[in-house]
């Protein structure tokens, strides 16, 4: 394999993976929420789409040409059939565009699944309920029914949703926790663990949290959080 082709592949791989590594680190973080992950994934897709044009390719290719001291191959044999290109640059342009296109498609397939919308709605409900009193007309309950039909008694959950904000405020005050607003699922789990009776008082809400944690973006975050909940 020609050395420039290898050099090109390494640099293109670095371009892709140095960006995707940032998303990977966010996903693995124990402090992130689903909305943060989806926002980061969307930003990464927009970045790849933005640099997937002739101007950015030309800049990328020119820098590699200047950094390389070897000749560029006339053709690249990718199968039993020889693929001809009008120029060396056109061959590498095709590799550049194709690689970025594959990366965008894989991200879209991973982060636009139906489950993610349901998870987002469940996450919003879980966080909203501990900060606000919900009445039974709230649209969140329909999302919960869609998310875990048959697993949650929604009527009981509606009753719990009227009181759970008061329970959390009481626990925060009793334990002198410096919390003004709950913004993380992990905080909800910690407060539940500090007052075990809450798991009995709000069984459906507690069950919803556990169901939410069993369908993670990646198992790492959910495993850490659900372990905390089970202590």
Blueprint of the fold:
Layout: H1 3-28, H2 34-51, H3 54-67, H4 88-111, H5 114-129, H6 140-147, H7 154-174, H8 185-194, H9 197-201, H10 203-213, H11 219-229
Helix pairs in contact: 1-2, 2-4, 3-4, 5-6, 5-10, 8-11
Protein name: HAT C-terminal dimerisation domain-containing protein
Keywords: Signal
Signal peptide: 1-20
Oligomer: single chain
- Report Rg: 25 Å
Quickly count the domains: 2
What's the main sheet like? none
Query: Termini separation (Å)?
Result: 55 Å
Shape: elongated
Count of DSSP H/I helices: 11
The low-confidence parts are: 76-82, 218-229
Q: Give the helix/strand class.
A: mainly alpha
Structure commentary:
The chain has helices at 3-28, 34-51, 54-67, 88-111, 114-129, 140-147, 154-174, 185-194, 197-201, 203-213, 219-229. The protein is mainly α and 231 residues long. It has two domains: 3-111, no CATH class; 114-229, no CATH class. The longest helix has 26 residues, at 3-28. It starts with a helix and ends with a helix.
Descriptive keywords:
single chain, 231 residues, disordered C terminus, 71% helix, 2 domains, elongated, mainly alpha
Briefly say what this structure is.
This protein is mainly α. The protein is built from eleven helices and no strands.
